[in-house]
Amino acid sequence: MKRGDAYEIPLGEYDFSRPPMYEYDSKLDRIENIKRKGILIGYGMHLTSSLQFNDAILFYKYLSNNSYFRKDYYPYRKLAEIYDEIDEPTAGLVNIKRLLHARIYLNDYQFIWFSERIRQLMSKASISEHEVQGWIDYYNSHGALLKKRQDPFLADRFRVEDDRIIVMGDDEFTHRQDRLALEESGLIYERVGNLDLAIRHYSSIISTGKYNYCHFYRRLCICLDRTGDYGREAKAIRLYFRANPVDRTKSGDEWFRQRLESVENKLKSSLDFYL
Known about the structure:
The protein has 2 domains: 2-170; 193-274, Serine Threonine Protein Phosphatase 5, Tetratricopeptide repeat (Alpha Horseshoe), CATH 1.25.40. Helices cover 62% and strands 5% of the residues. The protein has helices at residues 30-49, 53-63, 74-85, 89-100, 108-122, 129-141, 170-191, 195-208, 214-226, 230-243, 250-274, and strands spanning 2-3, 6-10, 158-160, 164-167. Strand 3 and strand 4 form a beta hairpin. Helix 4 (89-100) runs antiparallel to helix 5, helix 8 runs antiparallel to helix 9 (214-226) and helix 9 packs antiparallel against helix 10 (230-243).
C-alpha cells in the first residue's frame, strides 16, 4: 500500500530459521523486489538482535555482493557497527576500505560517519594516514561521482516491523539524512574539544529553523554550560520553549526546566559574588 510518498508493504509471518538468499529479479514488480530486500534486512536484524555476531558478519558480507545491495552502503555500515561492538578495529578498517573502493555513493551523513569511524579506529590499529588518504582519494574520484547511480531504495529507507515493511519517502529520507549529518558534525566538534565551533554550529542550525529538533538545543546548552556561558545558555533554554521543536516531549521539557533552574542559580551566585 502506498502512503503519500512512502510505501507500506505487508510482510506477513516470515521464518528466519534459514537465511533468505534472494537476488534481484527483473521479472518481479517493484513492490515484490522491495519486499525481498526488506526480508534480507529483517534477517540481518534478527541475527544482530539475537547477538549472533559471527553469523551476522558472514551474512552482511554476503549482502555486500548481493544484487539488492550492490549500490547500497548498508551492509558495510552494519558490519562497521558489529566490528565496533566486538572490538575488532583492524577488521573495521578493512571493511571501510572495501566500501570506499566499492564505487558506492555516500551522502554527507554517511561519509561523515564513516570518516569519523576511521579516525577513531586509527588510534587502535596500525595504519598510516597516507594509506587512509589513498582510500579517500579513490572514493572521491569514483564513488563520490555516482550520486545519480545510487540505489533509489537504500536500506536506510526501510523500517521492518513485525508484519510489514515501511519504506520512507524521498523528501523524508533526505531531510533525515541531512539532519543526522548536522548532528554527527556537531558531536565530532565536541569530541575533539572544539566547543566554540560546536556552539556556532548548533546556533546556526537553530537560527535557520529548518531543523527544529530538541537535539540541537540540548547540545547547545551542554556546550555553553561547559564553557561557563550561563547567560547564553539561559537564552537558549527560553528559545527552546518559544520555538517548540517538532519532537518536543514532556520529559524533554522537564530536562530544560531543570536546566534553567540550575543556570539561574549559577547566574545568581555569580551576581552575589560581585555584590
